[in-house]
Amino acid sequence: MRDRVVALAIAGGLVVGAVGAAAVAFTGGGGGPSLPRLPVAAPAISRAPAGRVPAHLVLPTRARVYRLPDRADAARVMLLASVLGADGPAHHGAGGWTVGSEPRQLRVFDFPGLPWRFGRLAPEVIGCPATPCPSGRFCAQVCPKPEPLTATAARATAADAVGVARRVAAVTGLAVARTDVRQPPDLPATVRIEPLAGGIPTVGLDLAVVVGADRQVAYAQGYLGAPVALDRYPLVGVKDALRRLHARHGLAAARVTRATLVLLASRGRLVPAFLFDTSAGVVPVVAVEARYLAK
Known about the structure:
The protein has helices spanning 2-27, 74-84, 158-170, 238-246; strands at residues 38-41, 62-67, 90-93, 96-99, 106-109, 115-119, 175-182, 189-197, 200-203, 207-211, 217-223, 228-234, 256-266, 269-278, 281-286, 293-294.
């Protein structure tokens, strides 16, 4: 009986020890829960002091990371094709999906974010025939420039173009943050849409739609599928973020006027970043602490 009690006590101790070890593994030995490293390179840090931090720069201390999808099913591809105007069945081959034929073909690529492209931005360029060239000599080859894409009828209004672009955005699985429309003289309207993820603007996932005179999509490109929410990661402080910014080429003396939290598309993830408005332009800087980034 005594041996049985001892055996049960030892077994119980092993169970408690295992639970304790699991708890230590989960917490990383103290502090918050352990987080996997992200497949994103840690940014360089300037050795110079960050300088005085503008009082209005108040940034969050934690933010969520998202994983970008890299596989699409036929149903989602066909839904996008129907909105764009690509006719025919969906075929999956090396590299991704295709629907229809040129010039109104949709291609969805099997890469993180599922980038896709529809139509042709300019008329197809046919290579000019090569002129004979004596052996051992270099002969210049001159080909005529292709004709630019021009409107052949009354252009779609800005409101029409935005409406068409938003219908495309609605089937991509990405929420809309901001819409910008441009109508150069004698050219179709081009609409650019910045998507949201978790209510935060993204950088690198823009949707662009060129709308023809008949309110049909002449060309479009974007990303397909909603990002998958992962863990929340701790972010660097404002001073460290500024040191990362100043380490970028040509930005050592840049004056910062504004900073906002965005999600930067990088290596299959949407990574929290600070988008700085500077005297040298708008620059995103990865904001996750270096210990959670690839070395």
